[in-house]
Design goal:
The chain has 245 residues and is of the alpha+beta class. It contains 10 helices and 7 strands. The protein has a single domain, classed as Lambda Exonuclease, Chain A, CATH 3.90.320. Helix content is 38%, strand content 16%. The structure holds iron/sulfur cluster. Iron/sulfur cluster binds next to helix 2.
């Protein structure tokens, strides 16, 4: 295996990558270390488009366009009075702002931060079935993304979390799941539920430092995998054709 010289770039871990690695370490590795692309799914495209409608509303007060499904979803949340008033929040905050926790670098974008009420919020655009699996106030407190959002600047002595669910179909109206926590509680949860996975991610990331581009996917095959996760969300893993199980 050949190596190329170059400075080592530390791994900066995000909530979604922790979720990937928790699902299957090799799944995360194919994407992050093997640099294999993933299919852009319809839910992902929907989520991105709807997030930008919500962002424009909160940042600029732009009323959602009801001729688009994205506008209708967000308007549903506004009508239910689940969102803060426009121009009262930091919006999509934290991009390109890595922060350190327990000596390791993380990144976490918070969809909105209402400073006055110390609320950090997230938009979740979900299928009718997905709404049935929404977090509860209890499980929100153990959610890795929520914990990282709590620990990302600005850090408050107490943080309200508001996860807004927008069902994309069905009869369920948008609804919010709220919980209150502290940085200490979020840190303890993160250490318990995510730290072992994050440390493993760093170990593999270091192993790949200097590995030649053409060898990276082959090296991923040596990373432990979990074949119970190959059909998560009822669709085959993007890397099924590549993965040697
Ligand atoms: S195909 Fe299965 S085992 Fe292989 S990377 Fe994907 S989830 Fe993991």
């Amino acid at each position: 295996m050949s190596s190329i010289p170059g400075a080592y770039k530390p791994l900066i871990v995000s909530p979604s990558r922790i979720k990937d690695a928790s699902r299957c370490m090799r799944y995360w590795a194919f994407c992050k270390l093997g640099r294999l692309p993933r299919e852009e799914t319809e839910p992902l495209r929907d989520g991105q488009a709807a997030h930008s409608v919500a962002e424009n509303y909160l940042r600029h007060g732009t009323v959602p366009d009801v001729t688009s499904k994205y506008g209708r979803w967000v308007l549903g949340g506004i009508e239910q009075q689940l969102l803060p008033k426009p121009k009262t929040c930091l919006v999509e905050f934290g991009r390109n702002m890595p922060f350190e926790f327990d000596g390791l670098p993380y990144t976490a974008i918070t969809d909105f931060i209402h400073l006055e009420s110390r609320t950090k919020g997230d938009h979740k655009f979900v299928s009718a079935r997905g709404a049935d699996f929404a977090l509860t106030p209890e499980t929100l407190l153990t959610d890795v993304q929520a914990c990282l959002n709590v620990l990302a600047p600005p850090v408050f002595p107490e943080t309200w979390l508001r996860w807004i669910y927008y069902p994309k179909s069905g009869k369920t109206k948008p609804f919010a799941v709220d919980a209150k926590t502290t940085p200490e509680a979020a840190a303890a949860t993160l250490r318990r539920v995510a730290l072992p996975v994050v440390q493993e991610m760093h170990t593999y990331h270091k192993l790949f430092a200097g590995v030649h581009e053409g060898d990276r996917v082959d090296l991923c095959q040596a990373i432990p995998c979990d074949s119970t996760q190959c059909f998560e969300f009822n669709r085959p893993c993007d890397y099924s054709p590549t993965c040697k199980r």
